[in-house]
Amino acid sequence: MSLPFMNNWSGKLTVLLLAGLVFSQFAWAQETDNTLASSEKPASEEKPSGQVLDKIIAKVDNYIILESDLQKAYLEAISQAQQGMETPTRCQIFESLLINKLMMAKSEIDSVIVSEAEVIIQTDQRFSMVLQQFGGDEETLIEAYGKTADQLKSEIQDAVKEQMVVQKMQGVITEGLEVSPNDVRQFYGSIPNDSLPFFSAEVTVGQIVKKPEVSQAEKDKVVEELLSIKQRILDGDADFASMATQYSEDPASAAQGGDLGFFKRGELAPEYEATVYELKPGEISDPVETMFGFHMIQLLERRGNTFNSRHILRIPTPSENDIEKAERYLDSLRQLIVEEKITFAKAAKEYSDDRETSDNGGFFTDPGTGSNKLTLRTLEDPVLYFTLDSMEVGTLTQPIRYDDVDPRTGRSEPGVRLLFYKERFPAHRANLSDDYEKLKAAARRKKEEEILSNWFVLAKEEVFIDIDPQYDRCEALKN
After folding, report:
1. Strands (E), 179-290
2. Strand partners, 301
């Protein structure tokens, strides 16, 4: 018996688990293309010359799957498997890609759509994160991938849109699904004792984060810098686009000379939009502050309720004094916790700046199960791993500085936090008492697979599907 929490590649509906995987690391890197010729393939795929000619291996209505799509997804899956996941077969990857395309085709029939604004925002964020990995240097990024920023961004946008549509379709198909305690017990009871998984040691860890508040003095420096750039543009010593490319800290738009493209009212930060609607075409604003930093904006064009603008973004950074102030704040909060004048969970909910953990009393959760129990590997933070390794269970650290990555921009920012090592659970065989949340998540995935399997049987009859005979062996269209 294959358990959902033991083998994420079981069943033909692995699209649910693969949706984020296929697009997470941008496997279209040049090194992937070079690997294409030498990777493991069926005998019929081998080319005497060592070169692989790309071709269409499946078509679902107007959506196609290329040989290279499969190879890249397969290599990405292998990369993930090296981090603890079981390696899928090429047929399982092919089936998942096929179901992705089926969901895309069905989304058009069923009018399940995602807004272009959502796609653009997600694309910009992901491009920024990729660019950040290259130190914000676009030339280095282009050299690594062998493609222009526009080409890379276009590929990211296509992948993002597909991922968002697939996730939305999944939500529509499984809407109303509930898992009761009795469902969990029945699921657990259906697993033979000798098939119960053996879980590694787990921990429960919490944090209270304080993000240093940037002082007014640091903000004033950024404002003066932007005003100086504006004056250079007005004096004719420089043009807006070149200044944006050189100075803007929004890497996604800086590559385009600061151009953001057209947006509708309500799609950008309120302060940004309020400024845009006060400008005439060609006019440049004074610096305006939003949650992202300070923008200097130029309106390019307005069409009805949409507008095209460009900006130069500068993000003020905390000074050493700002960081020390955050440390003193957390030190005082720590003293209250130690003296039991407030619980850790209450302090985290009320005072932590990290919303992802504060809503859960400060505790990290396993994204797959929602459980507070997680392996150190799940934390994916080597600094956190080694910090916990030197701590005793039940202890609370002094304020610790760390690098916090802003998910909106991919930019690393200084942060300060307290860590609470609450509990440690020894390695053990799965049981209802200790692993209820994991079993519940597994039971839910099993139900989802059943629902989606039934959906697949009906949906495949509503679209045109053509599969290259080479992949008939995968039996992807069989239930």
Report:
1. 198-199, 202-210, 259-264, 288-290
2. 308
Q: Cα separations (Å) of 42 from 47, 49, 98, 290, 466?
A: 11, 16, 19, 54, 20
Q: Is the pLDDT reported for residue 295 higher than 70?
A: yes
State percent of the chain over pLDDT 90.
Answer: 53
The architecture that CATH gives domain 201-213+319-426 is: Roll (3.10)
Q: How would DSSP label each residue in 84-127?
A: TPPPPPHHHHHHHHHHHHHHHHHHHHTT----HHHHHHHHHHHH
Angle at 17 between CA 423 and CA 448, to 5 degrees: 95
Helix, strand or coil, per DSSP, at residue 205: strand
pLDDT at 41 over 80: no
Q: Within the chain, which residue ranges are assigned CATH 3.10.50.40?
A: 201-213+319-426, 216-314
Would you say 144 and 134 are in contact if contact means Cβ atoms under 8 Å apart? yes
Give the single-character DSSP code of 285.
P
Question: Residue with structure tokens 């033979």?
Answer: 192
3-class secondary-structure state, position 477: coil
Closest CA to 18 of 96, 127, 112: 96
Tell me how far apart the alpha carbons of residues 139 and 142 are, in angstroms, rounded to a whole number: 5
59 or 382, higher pLDDT: 59
Residues ≥6 apart with Cβ < 8 Å to 165: 103, 104, 107, 112, 113, 114
What CATH class is the domain 15-190+432-474? mainly alpha
Instruction: Tell me whether strands 56-60 and 465-467 are parallel, antiparallel or unpaired.
Output: antiparallel
Q: Using CB atoms within 10 Å of the CB of residue 155, give its burial: 0 to 12 exposed, 13 to 18 middle, 19+ buried.
A: middle
- Topology of the domain covering 216-314: Chitinase A; domain 3 (3.10.50)
Where are the CATH 1.10.4030.10 domain residues in the chain?
Answer: 15-190+432-474
Q: Which residue has the higher pLDDT, 403 or 479?
A: 403
Task: Lay out the sheet containing 306-314: strands in order across.
Answer: 259-264, 306-314, 293-303, 288-290
